[in-house]
Amino acid sequence: MAEDYYETLGVKRDASQADILKAYRALALKYHPDKNPDDKTAKEKFQKVQAAFDVLNDQSKREMYDRYGSSFEQMGSGGPRPSRGGQPGAS
Fold it and tell me: Is-contact 55 5, C-beta < 8 A?
């Protein structure tokens, strides 16, 4: 099962951007590999916090994540795509 980004940052789903930033900063400081050279899992935890923040801090990514969950990146933009074959009827 995919990780819940809100849970990773320890914020509620209706958290403000300021709350998300505050939680990110606290966790990034806590798990930063340079501050935890003896902790082998610090880098992994830091990367998870960073990935969660990258999505939840970007309003469009957050909306897609809220709508589709962890598979939001596979959903694409959802709009019509231009064809590769050129203009219809052109010779």
Answer: yes
